[in-house]
Amino acid sequence: MGLAAYDLTGRTALVTGAASGIGRATARLLAEAGARVHCADLDAPGAERTAALIAEAGGAARAHPLDVADPAAVARTVATAVDADGPLHIAAAVAGVLHRSPVLETDDADLERVLAVNFRGVLYTCREAARSMIAAGVPGSLVTMASGAVDSDAPGLLCYSASKAAVVQLTKVLAAEMGSHGIRVNAVAPGWVRTPMTERAQAAAQRRTEDAMARLAPLGRVGEPEEVAHAVLYLASDASAFTTGQILRPNGGVAMPW
C-alpha cells in the first residue's frame, strides 16, 4: 500500500476534545492527511481555534460546541456533520477529564462526572458515528482514547483509570459487533502526555507528576500530543485495514503488557 494508505482525501472525520491537547493535534493531523474534520468540544472557542488553524494550513474543518456527556447533543452533532460533508468515515473520541483523589476520599459526584465524560461520552460518540456509517453503508474507523492508567495500579486515579478501563472493554465489544459492517474499532492508550489537562494536574502537584513519569519511562521523557495523534492517524487510515479490537500504546515504554 505504501504511504498512500495514510491518505484520507475525501473522508469525513469527527474529533471530540478537539479544542486542545491530543484532540487538537489529532484534528490537525487528520486534516493534513486530507480529511474534512469536524472539531467538537465543550470549549467552543477552542474548537473554533482548532478549525481556524486547520483552515490556515489549507485544510477543511468545521467547529461544533459539544458536551459529549449529552447523548442528544452528540446525535445532533453527528447529524450536522453528515449533513454538511456526507457520511462519517472516522470518529476519534478524544474528549476526557482527569480527577485525582484517594479511593476513600472519592465521592459519588466525582465518579459520576468522570464516567459521564470519559466513558459515556465515548459510548455516545462511537454509537452515533457507527449508526451513521451503517446507515450510509460505508466502512469506517472508530478510535477511542484509553490511557496507560489501565495498565497500572494508578493510585489516586480511581475515577479516571476505571473510566478508561471501561473504554477498553467498550472498544473490544464494539469491534466484535461492528466487524460485519466493515467498521473497525481500536483504542489508543497513551502514557503521560504534555497537554493542558496534565499541566493543570501537575501544577496542583508542583510539577512532580511529569518528572516522576519521565523517570519511569524507558525513553526518559513524557509524550507530546502530536505523537499520540500519529497513532490515531494510523488507526483511522487504511494502513491499519486489518486491525480491530486492539490497543495501541504510545507510552514511552512505561507499561509493557503482553
From TrEMBL:
PROSITE patterns: ADH_SHORT. One of its GO terms (molecular function) is oxidoreductase activity. It comes from the Bacteria. Keywords: Oxidoreductase. Pfam families: adh_short_C2. Transmembrane segments: none annotated. Belongs to the short-chain dehydrogenases/reductases (SDR) family. PANTHER family: DEHYDROGENASES, SHORT CHAIN, ESTRADIOL 17-BETA-DEHYDROGENASE 8-RELATED. NCBIfam families: PRK07231.1 (NF005559). This is SDR family oxidoreductase.
